[in-house]
Write the structure tokens for this entry.
Amino acid sequence: MNADLSDLQNWLAPLLHALAPAQRRQLAAQVARAVRQQTQRTMRAQTSPEGQPWEKRRAELLAASGPRAALRQRAARGPMMRRLALARNLKMQATPDEAVVAFVGRVQRIAAVHQWGLSDRVSSRNRVMHTYAARPMLGISPEMTDIIRAAVLDHLQTALQKE
């Protein structure tokens, strides 16, 4: 994966130097948008960026989370972390030098716990701690590098057509 990323960086560097800062910011926004959309697709598919399925959630964990366990179990039948994939939680930022896609606000802690498989409280109302399985949501896969390459080529093609 690191070799893929360094190849992409080496391929992009001369192309980016030829662009004005405003064009680089537009390109970064386009790339960030494409990365966010792909990340949302993988999250909805309940897979890591590399395509491995996430570990299923545990029913006993939902029951330990409080007196509304039956409601939580019914609500938990849907896909995990479906609200984390919303654009309001998965923000993108673009500057002439970088494109960033990250979780923001209160969901940032929840996303980090699941991304890395950390320990956290099951509910804010009790002290039950649980070590969650790692469910990677953010990352650069070979498919993602292809998406980035396509976004860059598309941007350059439209920029050349305007000139």
Observations:
- The chain has a mean pLDDT of 84.
- Strands lie at 90-94, 99-103, 119-121, 129-131.
